Amino acid sequence: MGETYHIPVLLSQAVEMLDIRPDGVYADLTFGGGGHSRRILSQLGPEGHLYSLDQDPDAAANAPADGRFTFVASNFRFVRGALRLRGVEQVDGILADLGVSSHHFDTAERGFSFRADSELDMRMNNRGGRTAADVVNTYTNSALSEIFSSWGELDTTWKIANCIERARERQPILTTRQLVEAVRPVTPAKEEAKFLTKLFQALRIEVNGEMEALKMALEQSLRLLAPGGRLVVISYHSLEDRIVKNFMRSGNCEGVVEKDFFGRQTTPFTVVTRKPIVPSDEEVARNPRSRSARMRVAEKNMQDR
User: Fold this and answer.
1) Residue 23: enclosing H or E segment and its boundaries?
2) 110 pLDDT band (50/70/90 cuts)?
3) DSSP states of 60-82 as a string?
4) CATH for 2-102+210-300?
5) DSSP state of 101
6) Burial (Cβ within 10 Å: 0-12, 13-18, ≥19) of residue 190
7) pLDDT range class, residue 256, cuts 50, 70, 90
8) Mean pLDDT on 51-64
9) Are strands 294-300 and 25-28 parallel, antiparallel or unpaired?
10) Does domain 108-208 have CATH number 3.40.50.150?
11) What is residue 275's DSSP assignment?
């Protein structure tokens, strides 16, 4: 399924930035269609190994038959524990492509897209947990307003929440089409797609706990990376990119740079990319979904063990 499941973004640049050693051990936190993982494997020698994580059961079908590869069915928020269970205490590089796979958008029944009518689901791991329909129908007006503001960066979110509340009083909102119709009164006619994209993004982030998972994965990456190891992260919206930038600059997700006894700034990383790497015009033309990608890279300092 691989390439049809998801077209890897910034493929060559991301793997190049990992600075792979043939005998090294690496972790791909977002396996998806396996594009990045296969490129990493192509640069590993017989002694190297790659561990790739994905919480979506569908992704397992893309796993290559390679003795140097281990697929781990897990959310990346549990990466350190998942690797320690397999006897791995340190890795030489970590890659995370935070984007939603094309598979999720294109599989209508998963409910990620407003462009097709389907159940309002949005779970990355559809084996359990709350759905977007649960959020829309059970969250309070103020809670809905907060997630649309925080995760969707939308304006006048109380108006959106009011529309949803009125609609669900008439009947439960169970499909993507019903949600689109519920918010129709506050949807800008000239920016409908942009508005709905942010609305659906906010729900998806809430359903999957994406910001919390990202923070947990970054914090664990610091402990997992061997000195000199690299962290490569591709993000797709400002919320993610801000957290990644803060973490690489300071070693914590809040971006607070600590100082030593003499007042000198201390950080566990050296930032490799002063500005984020973005896709070329040619890549965006081939894969329009890559247009918002931003890749940042940091290397763990040698003294941090």
Assistant:
1) none
2) low
3) GGG----TTEEEEES-GGGHHHH
4) 3.40.50.150
5) P
6) exposed
7) confident
8) 90
9) unpaired
10) no
11) S
